[in-house]
Design goal:
Keywords: Amino-acid biosynthesis, Arginine biosynthesis, Cytoplasm, NADP, Oxidoreductase. The protein is α/β, with parallel strands linked by helices and 351 residues long. It is built from ten helices and 14 strands.
Length: 351
Amino acid sequence: MADKIRIGVLGASGYTGADLVRLAYTHPKIEITTLTANSHAGKPMKAVFKHFSHVTLPDLVTIDDADWSSVDAVFCGLPHGTTQAITKSIFQSHPHVKILDMSADFRLKDPAAYKEWYGLDHVATDIQPEAVYGLTELYRDDIAKARLVACPGCYPTAVLLSLVPLAKSGLIDATDIVIDAKSGVSGAGRGLKENTLFCEAGEGLSPYSVGKHRHSAEIEQEIGFAAGLDGLRVNFTPHLIPMSRGELTTSYVRMNQGASAADLRQLLIDAYASDPFVTVLDEGVLPQTQMVRGSNYVAMNVVPDRIPGRAIVISTLDNLVKGSAGQALQNFNIAYGLEETMGLKQLPLFP
């Protein structure tokens, strides 16, 4: 095992943590040494997730019982507000460990913005400045040097990959963006919630957190940065759709400089020409969640709107893979100088 990089997964009993374990198990350079889940401590993973019945994994332990000397990297799949203190503690006792945080705790650059959106004081403001926003295709060079990677939320990943190059180029008006987003119920986590019960979510489509979804902050931060605008606001409305995984965002944009939808599409083709996981589909082909299910791929396209001067940008990904665990593993590969696609070459699962 000398050539293996030892990892721990915090929150391994959640959907995000479990998908990280699923992907990491077959990664040729990873040895999984620590799995935590306070509410399931002492249990084997197969008792919590039946799809791990075929493999041998470490038993789950509490965070307090985790041995940080046995890991080189930690993937954090904990709820927001719980990762900051743990990250700070790990860095104090084991400063060599790299942390790839899949929660929201280090995504926002401004601690005041974090408190505004999450209702909590940030308790690790001393290490916040070194956190790199882990949107792989946009911050690859910074991720390669980072000790702390703040992996984006699922909605921001789909939105930002499709809009940031356009905002940065000036081909769209970043102050006039309307985003309609839909995600499967796994995005709400594994905890018991009435609105995600089968009888509540099945055969229906429900908007939620209208005008106040926390992922708006990430979207505004990164598009604002790309467009050179402070205090940017976007219109973002998410919806819960009755499927286990998958996400699709439809963004309505106003074009600048006499640009056409074809110009926007070509810019995205050029921007991602060398990126292994981003596909700009053939002209006229519309993204569908079936194109990416279970994979680390993103499919996107641009079509002209009926309204002159406007275009529609559509993007889809698997919320648990490229929208979370897969992107975290992609960032891990970059942080350790490995092939970026290692452990992530699975094609989408269909049907």
